[in-house]
Amino acid sequence: MALQILCIGDVGNYIKTLSKFSKSRIHIINWPKADAGNFTYDDEYELFENYKVSDQVKKINSIKHNFDLCIVMGTGERIAYLCDLNYVCYYVGRDIDAPRFKKNSSEPWFSEPLHQLNIFERNFYKKTFESAIAHVAPIWVFDHLKKYTKSGIKMDRKPVDSKVFNDEIKPLEIPKKKFTFFCPQRMGIPKGTDILWNALKFCKSDFEILQVDWRDMGTKEEQETSLKIRESRPKQVRLIPMIKRNEMPRYYKWSDAVIGNLRIGSYEYVEMEAVFSKKPVINFADPKIEIILDDKKINSPFLPKDNDPKTIAALIDKIVESKEFRDELWKSEFNIVKEITDPHKAAEWWDELFEKFAKKHKMTKNTPKILLKFRLWSFLISNRLYLKKLFRN
User: Fold this and answer.
1) Which candidate in 144, 182, 228, 274 could, as Cys together with 255 as Cys, close a disulfide (CB 3.0–4.6 Å)?
2) What CATH number is associated with residue 333?
3) pTM value?
């Protein structure tokens, strides 16, 4: 009998892709669509009606007994904790490289804290972290997870649905005036957009970059920095509106090459999807970041191996000018990416994890109801104290 898995929050459609190949039945509840969510979410999600934590808790409490186990991403962790669930946490970025339980936590590339929470809120999020029955993280994110737990689990596969992203997709019917790179990621420091802008100063070839007009909008520093990046874009960059997820494959197919992340030193979904669309990808691959598949270390297929702007510029020029190089680069990327993104192997790995923890744990922890009410009200009160402080400032 298939396990019934509840997923609260799905960053990057990771769990959605997994659900198509897993023998477990995974039901996903995501946050309401707003701003970027209208473009980046898969079309088939159940959504919370609003952002009120009390309403979200009520929703999960009404259905939790229909499931065997819970997996969470992002702030789904707090909802699972407030609903007294046994849950597995999967991290993909800033929820663990700048955790909410750490005072004034910030990401390495910013000075302004990402979270400025009071001591009650930090204690709450420390409990949500400690209450998880397992913590899972991929590639570079795992290095941050190791700082806070010795029992973290590394999972480096990023499943891609080859039925959606592949070479058979029809490209856009838009004429190209010159060699065109597609850059669908957000503009900002975490994506290395500033590095790309610097690299373009050294490029000698003739090309265009289609950059999606989408910026980092977290802290004030992040907003100001990403706006400056947007306004200082080089002449080779043309902004285009945000794209619906179901249109992304056609853009990949239409472009000549794709530019991915140039800062973190590892791959994200842009790189994986582009390779499956038969496009060569530029992605900074830090040799110090390990990729582990089936207990074996493999080397990243991506280039460059350092993110010096001049190195990137030389690589861009070579891709533009040499079809032979482009073809060789794509083939070397695809040979490894097809293994990293194998959705059947990823689903099998997660199914084994689900079965392991479902045998050990029931869906709920059976904490007395009075304590659960106290837990919820404590969170709501501490959260409101912080909001009042914001308004005073």
Assistant:
1) 182
2) 3.40.50.2000
3) 0.91
